[in-house]
Amino acid sequence: MDHFKRFNDTAGHVAGDACLKGIAACLAGTFPEKGVTVARLGGEEFALLAPDAPPETMLAIGERARAAVEAMAWAHPGRSDGASVVTISVGVASVVPGPGLQAADLLRVADAALYESKNSGRNAVTGRPALPLPDRIRPPLRAVSDLIASGQELPFGMIPDFHRGYRNSSIVLQNIATGAQP
């Protein structure tokens, strides 16, 4: 969420929590189809997981998410940049099978794309080229996506270990591909 700290400082933490729940509901309602899983990682961090989606689809998913949150027209009393509603900045990172990539690398790339969106004025979607994903990482990431999609509660620590060290992110999009090169 863009300017989340300002929102919390101005409207209060109860309103901030309500807004985050509203964003989560909006994102879940925006992606009811199978194949896109919405998860809150913590703070104002969300992830949209879309296994097998090509990079261009991930950019479209990011734009749908951005537009849906803006269309909620949720008042943002702490904005000082001329906008009056809650918006999000989106960073998109895609992966394809390959050697050497760590899960933290994917988040680092998505986080860099996210900050490019924020630095370009916020309320934007920025993507990064597809990265190789080694076979040894793909199954655990797919397991996280499958657990979330099935509505099961995740084992303690499964997600925090996945995103450790990435604070102040609004949304991280990840594409967990299973074989096809983009």
From TrEMBL:
Gene3D superfamilies attached to this UniProt entry: 3.30.70.270
SMART domains for this protein: GGDEF (SM00267)
Name of the top EC class for this enzyme: transferase
Catalytic activity: 2 GTP = 3',3'-c-di-GMP + 2 diphosphate
Pfam entry (one): GGDEF
One GO CC term on file: plasma membrane
GO biological process terms, semicolon-separated: cell adhesion involved in single-species biofilm formation; negative regulation of bacterial-type flagellum-dependent cell motility
CDD domains given in the database record: GGDEF
EC code(s) of this entry: 2.7.7.65
Superkingdom classification of source: Bacteria
Molecular function GO labels: diguanylate cyclase activity
InterPro entries from the UniProt entry: Diguanylate_Cyclase, GGDEF_dom, Nucleotide_cyclase, Rev_trsase/Diguanyl_cyclase
Residue ranges of domain GGDEF in the record: 1-130
UniProt-listed PANTHER family: DIGUANYLATE CYCLASE DGCM-RELATED (PTHR45138:SF9), REGULATORY COMPONENTS OF SENSORY TRANSDUCTION SYSTEM (PTHR45138)
Record protein name field: diguanylate cyclase
